[in-house]
Every structure is written in structure tokens, then in C-alpha cells.
Design brief:
13 strands; mainly beta; 13% helix; 4 helices; 13-stranded antiparallel β-sheet; single chain
Amino acid sequence: MIRFIVRAAMIAATATLAHGAAAESASFDVSFAGIRAGMLAYDADMSGSTYIARGSARASGLAGAIFDARADVAANGKASGNAYRPAFYKEVVKEDGDTITRSFKYSGGVPAVRRDPPKEPRDHHAPPGRQAGTVDPMTAAFAILRDRPDGLACALDISVYDGAQRSRIELNRPARDGDRLICEGRYTRVAGFKPKEMAERTVWPLTMEYRRAGDVWQVEQLRFPTSFGAARITRR
């Protein structure tokens, strides 16, 4: 779980749309066991049922001192309520002097994945042709962190494919306390993971906290356990 959550969160960081002001934006701090690991933000625009999101990210704090990495991404597609149908996704990752570019082009809900430089998938990886109905990491980050009106907060169920692994994110069971809304949920490994990883554990709990902001609910904090300690994504 840690791999997906961190990647999806960081992919959403410091996003800037090419055409200017966006309909929605927010920034967050990411920490593990109380130690700051990074900053993230999203900047996305909805036009009718079409969404566009772009982003770039760097680790900060201790993680920034250890890892030299940067990610630039873009995603677009259609959204209706809490259902998402991506059309295109691209990421450019620069790490320790190497550059890796990947793109997903969707047809009938199925992603076709291209990677430069090419790399043969491992035997346990989930093949793209079997991932109909999944969303890309940027779309997942947008779906998790965006503002939600009544009825759409605490009502998320998406399957995510990152080009090798498939997972599922669920957020439900809302409990309201004044201007706060708490959702319980879970992250599930579905396919593409090493057999050892699947044998060790497949499900982790998630807790999302929203706060009321006018006529919408805004994400205040997302919490989940990891082998490195409790992880928190907290609104700045």
C-alpha cells in the first residue's frame, strides 16, 4: 500500500494547468511516523464532465535529502459523480540521473501502456489488457483528494493500475461530527504484486477526515498504517 499511496500523492504535487486558473486546488504535507517526507498539492479543472490535471513533485525533508527524484505528470478524462473514465495519462520520472517516460492511452476503458526506455514486465505483473475499468495514478490522486459535495464524500470505490500493479481504494462508512466527516475505508492489493507481498498482507485500513467548507467537504487528513509507522497526508 505504501508504494501506491506515496506515488499517487506525490504525483499530484504542485500541479499547474497550462491554461491558467483552476477550478480547485489544495496543498498537503506528507509524513511518516511524524517525520515530514514531502509536500503535495493538486490543481485541476472540470469543464462539464471533462477533467484535466497536471502535476510535478519532489520529496522534501528527510526523504528529499535521501532521494533525488522528480515526477511530471498529466491526466485527462471524464468524470460523473465518483466514477472516472481516464482517456490519457503521462508521467516523466527523473531519478538519480535517469529519465523514464510512461504513457497510458485508454480505449474502451482498457489502458495501452508505453514505456521509454522499454522494459520487459516481470512474470507477476498485471497485464494492461486485463485492466478494463481502472484509473491511472493521477486520476486516483484527484479522486481521493478533491472537494466533494454531500452524497459524494465517503463514497469512493476505484480500482487503480500503475502499469504493473492493480489495487483498490474504498472510502465509505461516514460518521459526522459537527463540521467534520470521518470516512473509514481500505486499500487492497489485487494483482501484479510479488507472491511474497500477497502472502504477507493484502488489505490495509484507511481513515479520511473531511471538514465543511461552504457547500462542499474538503479533505483535512488521510491516515493509514505502514511498516514505517503511521502515515498522514494533512491539508496545509
